[in-house]
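Hi team, as promised in this morning's meeting, here are the two structures we talked about. I've kept the exact order from the run log so nobody has to guess. The first one is mostly here for context; it's the second one we should focus on when we meet again. Sequence first, then the predicted structure tokens.
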Amino acid sequence: MNNWLPKSALCFKSYTKRMFVSDLLAGITVGLVALPLAMAFAIASGVPPQTGLYCAIVAGFAISALGGSSTQIGGPTGAFVVVVFGIVAKHGVDGLFMCTLMAGVILLILGATGLGTAVKFIPRPVVVGFTNGIAVIIASTQIKDFFGLKIDKVPGEFAARILTYVHNFSSFSPLETTLAVGALVVIILFMIFVKRVPGYIVALFVGTAAVVVFKLPVETIGTRFGGIPSGFPKLMIPHFRVDLLRPLISPAITVAMLGAIESLMSAVVSDRMSGDKHNPNVELVGQGVANILSPLFGGLPATGAIARTATNIRSGAKTPVAGIIHALTLLAIILFAAPLARFIPLSVLAAILLVVSYNMGEWREIPELFKQSRFEIVAWLVTFLLTVFADLTVAVEAGMILAVLVFIRKVTQTTTVSEATTEYIREGHVHILQHKEIPAYVSIFRIHGPFLFGATDKIDAIVNRLPDLPPIIILRLRNMTAIDSTGLQALENFADRVHESGRQLILCGAREQPAMRMHEAEFHEHVGEENICGSVAEALDRAKSMYPEASKQRPAGVTWGRRSTDVSPSTPALAVATSSTSGPEK
């Protein structure tokens, strides 16, 4: 039964006053951080700023109360800006609310049926491609407000938008540009030198104070939207239009998929920072309920927010109570301080969104992708270009088709026909495990079959056992027939986790395709060139030479030599080798 309980219900079994104080401080902090972001995402999406705030309050509360992550913060994010802007432009606000409701139902079904893990079948190049594209589009939509350009209507298409900026750049406002640049500098300086204080909050309050004190003639939330209404978000049943059901199916699937990807990625970040373990299906159920409730109160689509989740944890959050307090903090702001919001300058919000778009872009992934096969590079590039110049829904569909074709090609390349010659048998002796003694300070795991997107989570079978494993782990790749960029990233993360635990990792026996991909990706930087061996015999010799030093790094309370022949049936791609290995191993 506990498998379907939200983390908020589980945390109260051992909740303390000290934990509440930590959650209270973290919740207030992340609530203040969410204030400018929620308004900025709404404005960038083509809707009034209160729409983003209502989403952060209603959906943020639901995600923390009903989700499967202890420290996840939910609300509007940059991932939705592009698709929301398109839906509003084509179908109006009623179309947006209908689409969000439909996406919420899809997420609810994914979580309730246990299909939430299906998002792992979206390969890394496609995810990076549309994330890069979304970041570029968000940044492009903020140029008008950043420079205070006098443009009546900004085109929805990227190329036309840029041309409009170029033709009208002479109308820029020196005052608004100075305010935006100042906000940008403040945010960057705080990110570098005062990391514990969110620069977004400082930039927002300093910029707003400057407008009020010096009565600066700049465009604000008040001049464009008339301010933000005070009071509780009101229940508003969207106008249901049957004629929009069919055209909204594709955008609703896109919103649901983006919500699932973002929330589960954010939950993984939360796990790594907090040491917790999220429940993906319960998390998607919570996300589904949140996206059903949000439009009923006039809110945007919602998902897990990686940056706000990280801020939450760094601020001391222990349980979902922090996320609930974050939502209540925003509610208190619109109840008691909404009139002050009309002074917030749009140029400052534009500066904040430029930083957000840069941070969400995952630009560091691009050099790594260029080390992969040309097919994966093409999948990334097509997804990126279609996201920017066409439509996010089309981009994801095209990226997935390309990914499937790449997957089929990689799998078919692993099929070989060869003769078992005397030389082949002789050369195989160094790879087999029979007649080799595996010392107590070593555990050997092996991967069988292609290690491609969709299968990479099976490496968790080792990660979950790390506290009980000896100081040296050998990962045998003799039977791993192929690897892609998603698999490489999983191995890199695994290597880092092993080293963080105070253990050493040796890889051995990689075949031609995996060996080539690992070399191109400079995988040796994660384990050391000397720890990538040609065979299991060579790996055992390397372990023998490493043991005296590795044994000194033994974590407290761990006894080396605990061996197990147990392998979970849910992870068929992984097996553990022990000193009692039986049966032929090649």
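And here is the second protein, the one for discussion:
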Amino acid sequence: MGSISFLYAQNSISDTMTIEEVIVTGTKVAVSRNNVSVTVTVVDEKEIEESSESALLPVLTERVPGLFVTERGITGFGVATGSAGQITIRGIGGSPNTQVLVLLNGNPQYMGIFGHPLPDAYVASDVERVEVIRGPASNLYGSNAMGGVINIITKKQKKDGFKANARVMYGSYNTQKYMVNGGYKKKKFNVFAGINHDQTVGHRDSSDFSITDGYFRTGYEINKHFKSSFNFSLSQFEATDPGPEGGNAGNSIDITRGMGAFVFDNKFDKISGSLRLFYNFGEHNISDGFHSTDNNYGFVFYEAFKLFSGNTITLGLDYKKYGGKAENTFAMNGNGIVFADTSVYELGAYIFIQQKLFNKLMLDAGFRLEHNNIYGNEPVPSAGFVYKINKRSILKGSVSKGFRSPTIRELFMWAPANDSLLPERMIQYEISFNQYLFGDKLSFEITVFKAYGENLIKIIMDGNQPKNVNTGKFSNLGLEFATGYKPSENLIFNANYSYISMDEPVIATPEHKIFVSGTYNWIAFSFNLSLQSIINLYTQTGQSPVKGSYNLLNTRIGYKINKYFDVFVKGENLLNTQYQINYGYPMPGIIGFGGINLHF
């Protein structure tokens, strides 16, 4: 179904389109997307399921303008040298991913020592939808939301009774994917759980990958004003780095990641909010002797007040403490050496105000003060507007600041470490226009942005020693376009395009990114054909920059046997394009999969 969901957030192809869909990430509380001044893309459950992907992030690369995720093989991202899973939004991402914040049900997700998310831990079959803020959102979400936010919202059982799904897939390079999940709801109580397993030998020597992931969520509606929920996930994955083409294989990894959260929500006529307690943890083992245990825990609290007509004031407070222990157990003749064993905490308080005027204009402004126990305080302002020219023509604009706190690795680990580092900072200006035509069968959004960054952490030589310092700058200018057209109940087209001009090239940011998709339903058949075009993607920067372009043609054909069974086949890279996304790591040629879905 492609990228149309960021305009309409449909639940199926045949659903009636609506221009008043509800999102939550833009302002914390539920609000129509058309009342949010920042640009937000929504990728819904139907799109994710129809991709038949087990990993979530590759789906976003196609469907979110300005967002790109690197890959190195048929499945699996890995960590450490040779890893993929680099995320950028509008040329902002960091290396590794420290400038784009990943949330799981609104809770921050990143490895406590290195400050980046683990892409392999995000499984598509557990996800109800993904909401992506394209641009700085540090006013509401604090550090790491410098370039944008990816909020992954997991599934829950919504209707009384029992429901279950299962999938079995097999494809090229002995790639196997298994999934089963199900839920039960009775009156005020609901529960949902799932388990996934993927494995492949990979398209290159020493590119094997295996992951097992489990997810559990339960909730209880105490009364019409209060409800609570608990969710927990655990992933264990193993992978080998095949190394650059023509070289030797790299290290193997064995990683465990877990997350738990307790949520208590309240909702009244004039007041609504949430308290979220979260805990993330992990253990990383690399065959070169590196070993780490890390955690990231804290709380998120916010309350929204509707004091008078058209006004909403949101007050928030959040706290997180992150850190862990990193060592090499092989060093010092087997006695081991500890690189870091510490933690850092951050406390943030913010206010966000929205005011509607004349039923046409929505103004918003916010201010956050973040306190970090290493560098001190960081102020974060934002402001924006939404002007409804008419019901189907909407103009938006915003200016916002983003920041990213230095990580424990940058502060304390290895020779470049510098405990005097300050946050990275950026300011972004953007304006967008949304239009709905022909009874809302056709829609488009166009966005122009300009971003300036400073204080970027770079490694320079200080005498004979490398050192992390706040010296980098950037200036990015870009344009994004997305459109969806639904001429009939059985046919839907959608496309998106993004262009970015950077004064300094950034790995994992193509100059042009195009995605076009069409889906047709006929009786029990469904047909999808999509084309992704990547132009001038930098795979290496510095003194010897390398960039490339490629086109990927994919298709999926499904057949619904009955309400319990459907089968599908899918082909990827049907043009047999030779290309690289990670420098030195050739991607596979034509690959195919077949599978069965079961619904109970």
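Starting points for discussion:
The two ends are 24 Å apart (CA to CA).
The domain at 2-599 is CATH 2.40.170.20 (Maltoporin; Chain A).
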